[in-house]
Write a structure and sequence with these properties.
TIM Barrel, 8-stranded mixed β-sheet, 8 strands, 33% helix, binds iron/sulfur cluster
């Protein structure tokens, strides 16, 4: 698998926020969100190929139960299946972080799905690369069938990145297609790549989340480490 980094830290988002975990970050993504907080896995992907056996060995060396397979988009990589199978067999709790645009039968303890809204448009990056990606991004970012299969395959949470209050209507419309999903599985997170952005959006989004019956999630990797790589 092509891997950007493997490191131990604390989960920053969603229901396991605060949990010590090993992060296996794959590189390569089929989307180009303008606000991507790991551009070294998307806009400028970097990292070597690493075998599943080597990854399992690296992960086990940390001696930590929770593993987060993230990206980039980890489900683009066929080896996500044997990696997750082996980590689960070794007794780990495996969370897969995905945008929900591609299905692969990778087993997980928790499927953490972050569907991308219209607010993710690459055009806001303002580069020639962004213009090239816009059409593909828009065609790819929302895939109801894939999300249905991911939700059916494992325990799950849905996490939405909120940039402006106007995004909330889009989330409500989106979730109308999923009436069976209870509010406690739905997390709203501020769009932020810096502590300042996180603080500014957290102020109003926490109250709006409660009002709508969803959970609010901060992003502790930004609050604590200002989005420093590998933390
Ligand atoms: S889906 Fe995730 S990794 Fe891919 S570009 Fe968007 S934020 Fe970055």
């Amino acid at each position: 698998m092509r891997i950007a980094e493997v490191y131990a830290s604390i989960q920053g988002e969603g229901q396991f926020a605060g949990t010590p975990s090993v992060f296996v970050r794959t590189t390569g993504c089929n989307l180009r969100c303008w606000f991507c907080d790991t551009p070294f896995t998307s806009w400028k992907p970097e990292g070597p190929q690493v075998s599943v056996a080597d990854l399992v060995q690296q992960v086990d060396a940390f001696g930590i139960e929770h593993i987060v397979l993230t990206g980039g988009e980890p489900l683009l990589q066929p080896d996500s299946v044997p990696l997750c199978e082996q980590l689960l067999a070794a007794g780990h709790f495996v969370t897969i972080e995905t945008a929900g645009t591609v299905f692969r039968p990778a087993p997980a303890s928790l499927m953490s799905i972050s569907p991308k809204l219209a607010n993710s448009s690459p055009l806001r990056a303002g580069s020639a690369d962004a213009i090239r990606w816009q059409e593909r991004h828009e065609q790819t970012r929302s895939n109801h069938d894939v999300i249905a299969r991911l939700i059916a395959a494992a325990e799950f949470q849905l996490k939405f990145v909120v940039d402006e209050s106007s995004d909330l209507a889009e989330i409500t419309d989106y979730l109308a297609a999923w009436p069976q999903v209870p509010g406690h599985r739905i997390w709203l997170m501020p769009q932020a790549r810096t502590r300042e952005e996180l603080a500014a959006r957290s102020n109003w989004l926490e109250a709006e989340s409660a009002h709508l019956g969803y959970r609010f999630s901060s992003r502790w990797q930004i609050a604590e480490f200002d989005n420093a790589r590998g933390k």
